[in-house]
Write a structure and sequence with these properties.
This protein is α/β, with parallel strands linked by helices and 233 residues long. The protein has 9 helices and 7 strands, in the order H-H-H-E-H-E-H-E-H-E-H-E-H-E-H-E. A 7-stranded mixed sheet has the order 3-2-1-4-5-7-6, sandwiched between helices. Helix 7 links the parallel strand 4 and strand 5. Helix 1 crosses helix 7 and helix 2 crosses helix 5. The protein is globular and about 45 Å long. Catalyzes the formation of N(7)-methylguanine at position 46 (m7G46) in tRNA.
């Protein structure tokens, strides 16, 4: 008997895809938690969320896992007001920076988790909720002994598929070629997803993914960038 996606994901929680090095928050980032968390933050409760109530409307929802400093998420939410954005990030300085950016423009279509993405997916996001999910430049865990920590694994993408609306889009991006190859292998082997641009193909950079500071730094170092687009099968 095969395990269900939710059973398999228990294994993912034991092998974290991140290391929590919190770093030092600036006074402005700390103030963001004091002043803006009640507005933008969602405290992890372990129960399914009513996102219509959270956002005050019914609309397509986009999940970004590991948004870093929030630069791309802030831009996307400002230029896509018809959809709501859910961001998940474990590192406090980036969360604080994003909340300050959202508060500066009085954003209404973003909510944030400061929590492990696997647990959020398992317990807080109901089935069929997401129109799109984005995982851009996750930690490549480039040493072979650490490859098991990569978030893109068969069990994880199976779990994610259960949270997607029909024909929902998964957009992956990385600047580490071995990880791009790993992503492609995992996604092509998954029965839950179909390649949006053709079997075994990487995608051209879509216009909605802006070039971030992180990406520009990588390009200057001679890194390539690989995008993958998949639809829920």
């Amino acid at each position: 008997m095969t395990n269900s996606p939710d059973q398999d994901s228990l294994h993912l929680r034991r092998i974290r895809s991140f290391v929590l090095r919190e770093g030092r928050m600036t006074p402005a980032q700390q103030r963001a938690f004091d002043e803006h968390w009640a507005r933008f933050g969602i405290d992890y409760s372990g129960g399914a969320q009513d996102f219509d109530a959270r956002f005050g409307r019914h609309s397509p929802r986009v999940l970004e896992i590991g948004f870093g400093n929030g630069e791309a998420l802030a831009w996307a939410s400002e230029h896509d007001l018809a959809r709501d954005y859910i961001g998940v990030e474990v590192h406090g300085p980036g969360v604080g920076r994003l909340m300050n950016a959202l508060a500066a423009r009085d954003a209404a279509n973003v909510r944030i988790y400061k929590h492990d993405a696997v647990e959020v997916l398992e317990h807080e996001i109901p089935a069929g909720t997401l129109a799109e999910a984005r995982i851009w430049f996750p930690d490549p865990w480039h040493k072979k002994r650490h490859n098991k920590r990569r978030i893109i694994q068969p069990e994880f993408v199976a779990l994610l598929a259960t949270r997607m609306a029909p024909d929902g889009l998964l957009h992956l991006a990385t600047d580490w070629e071995p990880y791009a190859q790993h992503m492609l292998e995992v996604m092509e082997a998954s029965p839950h997803w179909r390649n949006a641009v053709g079997p075994g193909q990487y995608a051209e950079k879509p216009p909605w993914r802006i070039e971030t500071h992180f990406e520009r730094r990588g390009l200057k170092l001679g890194h390539g960038v690989w995008d993958l687009l998949y639809r829920k099968a």
